[in-house]
């Protein structure tokens, strides 16, 4: 993640909300889109970069956001993507919501930076994107309504329980996943969004050649088959995960998830002056992947030193790199064909 700079010169990290050195208020300015410090003037504040007079995003009332906007009583650009928020009278749901919004902001910032798809704002009319953060409920008759995490035509639903680390770890073990994170869920689901809103608009032929034709395979049959029989033994030769073998849609979403993971690591490495990766749409993807994997091997060693999971797979087969290059190529289309 890119860092910002406080007016005192200290670096600002994504989750900081006040400067440890000069105690300035920190956050993201909706006007100039900087991660910066603000000068407080009672009711309002002034952005230290663009000097606009700003107010706290309305969601700061619930401590789920750190943005500042020019109009009072308005939501910031990031909070506006959330169509349904949890029940704010339940404190546990508010804290889970804050965890959701933090992961969502990280995701949207990355999509914005990569223009993948050409920023989601520009698809508002044809392919709007929104998020629903919902909890399982039980009605008066004792009927349970379970929320299924997933994507449907631009609407990403995430079960609030996924913000709970105990729930995530239990599910991870049950499903035999190497990792289960909130940002990973968001990247996977937005992968389905990119598939629907962009890949299918600009390059369906390239998609079919690599992932298969999703319309030719019945999704619910494919799901039943996957949960009954598991993935083929040689899945790692062509797929990024066992789950990706289930259906072309899941293959694309898992690949997009890994692409966003790789670009996030590369952005951090550049921002920390650790590397000078070319992250433009024209960048050579196989070369970039190989360079990032060297960082992954090193960082995974640090993780193992502390008993944590490896960062990402340390090797990727040529077939997966080709699929990653396809996701990357989607950034070279700046307008969809009519
Ligand atoms: Zn400071
Ligand atoms: Zn500003
Ligand atoms: Zn906000
Ligand atoms: Zn999926």
Task: Provide structural commentary.
By secondary structure, the chain is α+β, with helices and mostly antiparallel strands. It folds into 3 domains: 4-75, no CATH class; 78-182, no CATH class; 203-338, no CATH class. The chain has helices at 91-114, 165-175, 182-202, 204-211, 219-229, 248-271, 285-305, 318-329; strands at residues 4-5, 11-12, 25-29, 35-41, 44-47, 53-56, 67-69, 82-84, 130-134, 137-138, 144-145, 150-152, 155-159. The strands form 4 sheets. Strands 3-4-5-6-7 form a 5-stranded mixed beta barrel. It has a 4-stranded mixed beta sheet with strand order 8-9-13-12, covered by helices on one side. The mean pLDDT is 93. One zinc ion (ZN) binds next to loops.
Keyphrases for this structure?
four-stranded mixed sheet, 338 residues, 14% strand, binds zinc ion, alpha+beta, five-stranded mixed β-barrel
Helix and strand topology:
Elements: E1 4-5, E2 11-12, E3 25-29, E4 35-41, E5 44-47, E6 53-56, E7 67-69, E8 82-84, H1 91-114, E9 130-134, E10 137-138, E11 144-145, E12 150-152, E13 155-159, H2 165-175, H3 182-202, H4 204-211, H5 219-229, H6 248-271, H7 285-305, H8 318-329
Bound molecules: zinc ion (4 copies).
């Amino acid at each position: 993640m890119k860092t910002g700079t406080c007016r005192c010169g200290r670096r600002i990290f994504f989750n900081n909300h006040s400067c440890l050195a000069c105690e300035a208020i920190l956050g993201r300015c909706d006007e100039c889109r900087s991660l910066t410090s603000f000068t407080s003037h009672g009711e309002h504040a002034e952005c230290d970069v663009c000097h606009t007079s700003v107010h706290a995003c309305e969601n700061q009332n619930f401590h789920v956001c750190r943005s500042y906007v020019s109009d009072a009583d308005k939501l910031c650009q990031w909070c506006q993507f959330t169509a349904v928020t949890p029940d704010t009278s339940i404190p546990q749901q508010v804290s889970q919501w804050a965890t959701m919004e933090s992961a969502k902001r990280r995701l949207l910032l990355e999509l914005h930076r990569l223009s993948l798809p050409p920023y989601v704002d520009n698809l508002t009319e044809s392919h709007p994107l929104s998020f629903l953060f919902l909890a399982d409920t039980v009605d008066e008759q004792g009927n349970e309504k379970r929320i299924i995490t997933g994507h449907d035509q631009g609407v990403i639903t995430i079960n609030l329980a996924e913000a709970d680390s105990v729930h995530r770890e239990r599910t991870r073990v049950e499903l035999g996943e190497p990792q289960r994170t909130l940002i990973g869920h968001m990247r996977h689901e937005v992968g389905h969004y990119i598939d629907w809103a962009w890949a299918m608009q600009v390059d369906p032929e390239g998609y079919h050649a690599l992932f298969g034709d999703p319309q030719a395979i019945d999704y619910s049959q494919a799901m039943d088959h996957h949960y009954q029989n598991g993935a083929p033994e040689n899945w790692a030769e062509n797929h990024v995960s066992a789950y990706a073998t289930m259906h072309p849609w899941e293959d694309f979403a898992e690949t997009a998830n890994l692409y966003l993971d790789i670009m996030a690591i590369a952005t951090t490495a550049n921002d920390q002056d650790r590397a000078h990766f070319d992250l433009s749409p024209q960048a050579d993807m196989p070369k970039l992947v190989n360079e990032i994997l060297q960082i992954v091997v090193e960082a995974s060693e640090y993780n193992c030193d502390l008993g944590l999971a490896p960062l990402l797979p340390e090797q990727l087969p040529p077939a997966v790199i080709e699929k990653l290059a396809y996701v990357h190529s989607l950034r070279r289309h700046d307008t969809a064909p009519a």
